[in-house]
Design goal:
The complex is a heterodimer of chains A (65) and B (182).
Chain A lengths: L10 E3 L2 H16 L3 H9 L8 H7 L7
Chain B lengths: L1 E2 L2 H17 L9 E3 L7 E6 L5 E4 L5 E17 L2 E15 L5 E7 L11 E4 L15 E2 L5 H11 L9 H15 L3
The chains are: A mainly alpha (65), B alpha+beta (182).
């Protein structure tokens, strides 16, 4: 995956598309669901916000508005 | 940590954070990824693309480290530097290599969890599943990333990755306290 702002200072700025990909990856690897499914179920209150993996993915919601 | 532009403010905010992380994370893993802002101006920040970072302990064993934040750029009202970054939420965690939670530091004032004030969780790696403390949200003040990074070095035997880690954490913590708005 190419990144727009590269490796200087150890900080990488993701494009919107790269951010969406990372969010999708997180939702699939941690919760075995797509990013869209996570967002839908999160907004519907169907996911347990006390679950650590749910919280971990939810922290990345701004990557995929 | 203000800046003339939002991008400069973000850079001024992230540089010391990355230095702080380098105190315990090997160079290879110590990359911070930040996205573009959502419609409300909220940014997500994650260490090592979301993969847990191994921390080496003096006894040869390892722990895993997570860092996630949300932040936003706000007006600083400082002449010449009208923008600064404020932290909006954090989730810092330490796990065993088997992904068993040791301790995690949470704060998400806008989250859906039942506790939105800063708190700490003690995980099954250190608390028996039947123990009273297992599911507690133990209240804390809002903790700096520096204090979280210092914790595994001083309490869990994690080997620091930089020789001047103590001075660096102190310096960056002073910056954090100087600019914090909460």
């Amino acid at each position: 995956m190419a990144t727009r702002l590269a490796q200087q200072n150890g900080i990488r700025e993701l494009t919107r598309e790269e951010g969406r990909e990372l969010f999708e990856q997180e939702a699939r690897e941690r919760l075995h669901m797509s990013g869209d499914e996570f967002k839908r179920r999160w907004q519907a209150g169907e996911l347990d916000p006390e679950d650590l993996n749910v919280r971990m993915v939810a922290m990345l919601l701004p990557l995929s508005p | 940590m203000a800046g003339k532009t939002p991008a400069a403010a973000i850079d001024a905010y992230l540089r010391p954070l990355r230095q702080t992380i380098r105190c315990v994370c090997a160079q290879h893993y110590a990359y911070l990824y930040r996205g573009q802002p959502d419609d409300s101006g909220l940014y997500a920040l994650v260490l090592n693309r979301g993969y847990p970072v191994p921390l080496r302990r003096q006894d040869g064993r390892r722990l895993l480290f997570h860092v996630r934040q949300q932040f936003r750029v706000v007006e600083a009202e400082i002449p010449g530097s009208p923008y600064k970054v404020t932290t909006a939420a954090y989730l810092y965690g330490i796990e065993t290599p088997e992904a068993s939670e040791v301790i995690s530091f949470h704060w998400n004032p806008h989250g859906l969890g039942k506790v939105t004030t800063p708190h700490v969780h003690l995980g099954p790696a250190v608390v028996h599943p039947d123990a009273l403390a297992r599911d507690l949200h133990i209240p804390t003040g809002r903790v700096s990333l520096e204090s979280v990074v210092r914790f595994p070095i001083t309490e869990l035997g994690v080997i620091p990755q930089l020789p001047d880690w103590e001075d660096m954490l102190l310096h960056n913590e002073e910056l954090f306290n100087l600019w914090r708005t909460w």
